[in-house]
Design brief:
Elements: H1 2-20, H2 29-45, H3 53-93, H4 101-117, H5 124-150, H6 153-164, H7 171-177, H8 181-190, H9 193-202, H10 207-218, H11 221-230, H12 235-244, H13 250-260, H14 262-269, H15 276-285, H16 290-298, H17 305-315, H18 320-329, H19 333-343, H20 352-362, H21 367-376, H22 383-394, E1 401-405, E2 408-410, H23 413-421, H24 432-448, H25 452-464, H26 471-481, H27 486-496
Antiparallel strand pairs: 1-2
Length: about 500
């Protein structure tokens, strides 16, 4: 009996000893509690007296359960450690792109977050957080690569800095002055890096901030780019000149373009980039540019800005007050459309010098005379007149300018003298309005009666006889010698064209 009791006691000690050896490395708090509970179940199974064989059997079973629990926990620990190593390996495979300092700092922060979470203790929760942090690292790399691409990559940034005269290490500040990274990327879609840098530099001190102000005033980088293109040749240089020489801020540049038309501003600045004339015209209009806006749109000057410049410089002798009166004089829509026929279909929009002198000399700078001329060429019935005038300007060489004809020059005043003198002398004491109509109708009749061959002969006559450099003689020849008759002029041209 005593031997049996002693034997059961020794078995209990063995079971308890082996239960105390049940353990697993790298467990987390929950697993440690589970394991402790399993070992406690072993002891609890054999608590109390008398110690029976049934109690020992229950203890043995609890010991096996504890060992099984430890094995499961050990497997989970190994899996966590494997996952931890895998995450570390994958983090190491994430390659940092060459990037800007602030982007580098972002990557370093993201990478440190992964590394910290992979440090012991290795738990499921920390592994899960590390996986999320790894996703953030990868996302950061993708976003940074996309950011760099939107900026033209580092080569584009270097080019931008070089053209802008900004040191690469100062790029962050330059970018901030442009409105930040997103705004800089938008700018670079409309303006390639070299162009954007050059414009910023041309705008002078604080060029980046001025550029940002221009974008804000025009509404978007694309709108600013469109304005630059509408300014014509070297549009960016003209934009810069409006700021530096014209002393305008972004809102001022936008207002000028809105008031008198961007293409007209550019045409007035052509060749010199001097904004003086454009500013003078704007000042005289006094902020009420409706008359000029209407003349631009319906008179056809919106697509022929050089012609409008010629009206201002030659027709109005560069006088802003006279130009304002000219615009105001075309208050009637019908008059504007009649003028548009001369500018467009009749070709005067492509012959700015001839147009300017036609108004100044042919019309004597009088708006009513110019309106009468437009009326003489208006309407469906006068379509041949408009087509004929275009032939005279092109094939006949009356557009004027040096080298219009192969062997000689044709002065643009020839067309003006043709209007003044080509219909012959008027009636003594005739009213001005009647005279304007007579001269306009006479020129329209002459143009309608000359075909391409007649205009070719006229061009030869202008060359061979030197008439192109004698506008007044040419006018009298048509008005007196030919009595303003297109048939007689055609015949004379044919004779003079003979070698």
């Amino acid at each position: 009996m005593r031997a049996a009791v002693q034997q059961r006691a020794e078995e209990k000690q063995r079971i308890e000893r082996e239960a105390g050896e049940v353990a697993a490395e790298g467990v987390d708090g929950t697993e440690s509690d589970r394991l402790s509970d399993s070992v406690a179940q072993v002891r609890n199974a054999m608590a109390g007296l008398p110690l029976t064989e049934a109690m020992l059997e229950t203890g043995r079973h609890a010991l096996e359960e504890a060992r099984s629990e430890a094995a499961q926990i050990g497997k989970a620990v190994r899996e966590r450690r494997d996952e931890n190593r895998r995450l570390g390996d994958e983090a190491g495979q994430v390659v940092d792109p060459e990037c800007l300092p602030d982007q580098r700092k972002r990557l370093e922060t993201a990478r440190t977050a992964v590394a910290d979470l992979l440090k012991p203790p290795v738990t499921q929760a920390r592994n899960e957080d590390a996986a999320l942090a790894l996703d953030d690292l990868r996302k950061a790399v993708v976003e940074i690569e996309e950011e760099l691409k939107s900026l033209g990559n580092l080569d584009g940034i270097r080019s931008l800095c070089a053209e802008a005269g900004v040191k690469e290490e100062a790029y962050a500040g330059f970018e901030a002055q442009l409105g930040g990274r997103a705004e800089t990327a938008k700018l670079l879609k409309a303006f390639p890096a070299k162009r954007l840098g050059g414009l910023s530099k041309a705008l002078g001190g604080g060029g980046a901030e001025t550029l940002a102000a221009l974008v804000k005033s025009f509404g978007s980088p694309d709108a600013l780019d469109s304005a630059s293109k509408d300014l014509g040749t070297d549009g960016d240089a003209k934009l810069a000149a409006l700021v530096t020489a014209g002393k305008l801020d972004g809102a001022g540049v936008k207002a000028l373009c809105d008031d008198i038309g961007t293409s007209f501003v550019g045409a007035l600045m052509e060749g010199s980039n001097d904004p003086k004339e454009a500013l003078a015209v704007q000042a005289k209009l006094g902020g009420d540019a409706k008359s000029l806006e209407d003349l631009n749109a319906q008179g056809g000057f919106d697509t022929k800005p050089a012609a409008l410049v010629a009206l201002f410089r030659k027709g109005c002798v560069g006088n802003a007050d006279t130009f304002k009166s000219l615009c105001a004089g075309f208050a009637d829509e019908a008059d504007r459309k009649n003028l548009g026929g001369l500018i467009g279909e009749a070709g005067l929009g492509d012959a700015p010098d001839a147009l300017g002198t036609l108004f100044a000399a042919g019309c004597g700078g009088d708006v009513d005379s110019l309106k009468a001329l437009g009326k003489s060429f208006a309407g469906d019935t006068n379509k041949p007149s408009r087509e004929g005038l275009k032939l005279m300007l092109t094939t006949g060489g009356l557009a004027g300018g040096k080298g219009v004809l192969p062997d000689g020059d044709v002065q643009p005043e020839c067309l003006a003298e043709l209007l003044k003198l080509g219909s012959g002398a008027g009636a003594t004491g005739a009213l001005k309005g009647d005279e304007d109509k007579r001269k306009g109708d006479g020129l329209a009749k002459l143009c309608a009666g000359l075909d391409a061959t007649a205009c070719e002969n006229l061009a030869k006559a202008m060359k061979n006889g030197g008439l192109g450099t004698e506008p007044e003689v040419f006018g009298h020849l048509v008005g007196v010698g030919c009595a303003g008759d297109p048939a007689k002029l055609s015949g004379l041209g044919a004779e003079l064209a003979k070698d």
